[in-house]
Specification:
Blueprint lengths: L3 E2 L22 E8 L3 E9 L11 H4 L2 E3 L2 E5 L5 E4 L1 H14 L7 H14 L11 E10 L11 E11 L10 E6 L16 H5 L2 H9 L4 E5 L7 E4 L2 E7 L2 E4 L10 H12 L4 E3 L4 H9 L3 E8 L3 E10 L2 E4 L7 H14 L10 E3 L2
Parallel strand pairs: 1-3, 9-10, 9-16, 13-14
Antiparallel strand pairs: 2-3, 2-8, 4-7, 5-6, 5-7, 6-18, 7-8, 10-11, 11-12, 12-13, 12-15, 15-16, 16-17
Helix pairs in contact: 2-3
Bound molecules: pyridoxal-5'-phosphate.
The site of pyridoxal-5'-phosphate has 14 residues, from β12, α6 and β15.
Length: about 350
């Protein structure tokens, strides 16, 4: 894929102080157009800026949109690493297939990320735990209010430098088990990373936030009984020294972090059960002191320990609201590989060149 480069007149000033998450955007963005019959065309890296769109643009009406989330990490010797980018490329193809959108070839997807990050190298922050968050997304651009797959699309990649998710060290969060709203059902779009899934989840998120909870734990959409995932993360629980997480069978997002953690756990000889876990069994295990640890897994936070669950008003504390031993060990191992401080024995990192 040939990528045109349009230089900015003036570069932005880099943010000073706290980076936070998703507040600052870099100088450039990658843009690729698609038209039915013509395919993908006009790959370019251009100054980050406003888009001019038609008010009838189909994504604004029917939400035909998919996205990805990944990071670039700066190593101590100033290499820039991506983490398993081919997994994001393939997942976006699966999401696009579900939403009747064209699939970007894996190599072109990785090249888009590589080339943009290379241009924005100076934006990959240096501080402990900081990284450049990368947001590839694609949306329907055809103008028209009638429901059918759009004939034109835009694929764009934007980046933002982000601070450490845990400036005060890894700390457990409180999770509200949602028993009214549901996120996904089999046959729906739960496995696809699409904006529409999130639009429907904001009401639950708001409800939990009002009660003082960080995120919701989703139960399955049919029985509202089996544990699926947490807002923006997959979720794992340690019960009787074994790990439990929902299987990937249509309703749960197949997380890159989830997959990596499962690999590491199995490598350590720890049993991972990818099964539907009944919320009642989870609560019972907590009451009996057999629920040892719980944590969410996702690119943004890497691993987020769970300190408290609230299900139908019953509150249980996990590991005395402290980060568990296994959780900490997994966090250190995965972040060690991602930032190039530990040997990459699984061959997961990709150097930006
Ligand atoms: C992106 C996402 C995850 C985590 O996936 P990673 O590839 O590990 O970042 C989990 N659940 C949902 C709903 C997501 O959108």
């Amino acid at each position: 894929m040939e990528v045109k480069f349009v230089k900015r007149e003036e570069l932005k000033e880099k943010p000073k102080g706290e980076l936070g998450f998703g507040k600052y955007f870099t100088d450039y963005m990658f843009v690729l157009d698609y038209e039915e019959g013509k395919g993908f065309y006009d790959a370019r890296i251009v100054p980050y800026g406003d888009l001019v769109v038609d008010p009838a643009m189909m994504v604004l009406h029917y939400a035909q949109e998919t996205f990805e989330g990944m990071k670039a990490y700066r190593t101590k010797d100033d290499k820039i690493l991506l983490f398993r980018p081919e997994m994001n490329a393939k997942r976006m193809q699966k999401s696009n297939e579900r939403l009747c959108m064209p699939e970007i070839p894996v190599n072109d997807f990785i090249q888009a990320i590589n080339d943009l990050v290379k241009v924005e190298e100076d934006w990959v922050p240096k501080g402990e735990g900081t990284s450049l968050y990368i947001r590839p997304f694609m949306f329907a651009t055809e103008a028209g209010v009638g429901v059918h797959p759009s004939r034109t699309y835009k694929f764009i990649v934007i980046c933002c430098p982000v601070g450490s998710y845990y400036p005060e060290g890894v700390n457990p969060v409180k999770i509200y088990v949602e028993d009214e709203f549901v996120r996904a059902t089999r046959g729906g779009t739960g496995f696809a990373k699409c904006g529409g899934n999130y639009a429907g989840s904001i009401a639950a998120q708001e409800k939990a936030a009002k009660l003082g909870y960080t995120q919701v734990l989703w139960l399955d959409g049919v029985h509202r009984r089996y544990v699926e995932e947490v807002g923006t993360m997959n979720v794992m629980f340690v019960i009787d020294n074994e790990v439990y997480t929902a299987p990937i069978d249509g309703t749960v997002l197949p997380g890159v972090t989830r997959d990596s953690i499962i690999h590491i756990l199995k490598d350590w000889g720890i049993k991972v059960n990818e099964v539907a876990l009944d919320i009642n069994d989870l609560m019972q295990a907590a009451r009996e002191g057999r629920l040892q640890e719980g944590f969410g897994t996702g690119t943004a936070a890497v691993i987020s320990p769970i300190g408290e669950l609230n299900y139908k008003g019953e509150i249980v504390t996990i590991n005395n609201f402290k980060t568990g031993e296994l959780t900490k060990r997994l966090y250190d191992t995965l972040t060690g590989i991602q930032w190039g401080n530990l040997e990459d024995k699984y061959n997961w990192t990709y150097e930006v060149k």
